[in-house]
Amino acid sequence: MWTFLLWMLLFVICWPVAVLALIAYPFVWLVLLPFRLIGIGVDAVFQTLRAMLLLPARMMRGPAGA
C-alpha cells in the first residue's frame, strides 16, 4: 500500500520518472531474482547447520511431554 501511495506521489510530482519506474520495475525484479535464490539457498544451509549443532542438546533434553 505504501509503495503505491509513494508511486502516486511521484506520479503527481514528476510523471515521466514515475512511468519509467513502472516500466523498469519488472526488469529490476528479474535482475535481482538470482540474488534472492542464492539468499534462500544460503539460509537453508545455515538452518541445516544450526539443526545439526543443536541436535545433541535437543536429544539430551528428552521427550517434550516429560
What is the N-to-C succession of helices and strands?
HH
Mean model confidence by pLDDT = 92
- State the oligomer: single chain
Which bin fits the share of residues in helices?
Answer: over 70%
- Helix/strand-derived category reads mainly alpha
Structural Rg: 23 Å
What's the structural domain tally? 1
DSSP strand tally: 0
Beta-strand share of residues:
under 5%
Give the low-pLDDT segments.
none
- Quickly count the helices: 2
Q: What separation lies between the terminal Cα atoms? A: 47 Å
Shape: elongated
Largest sheet: none
Summarize the structure.
It is built from two helices and no strands. By secondary structure, it is an all-alpha fold.
Describe this structure in words.
This protein starts with a helix and ends in a 5-residue tail after the last helix. Helix content is 89%, strand content 0%. The protein has helices at residues 2-13, 15-61. The chain has one domain (2-60). The model has no long low-confidence stretch (mean pLDDT 92). The chain is mostly helical. The protein has two helices and no strands. The radius of gyration is 23 Å and the shape is elongated.
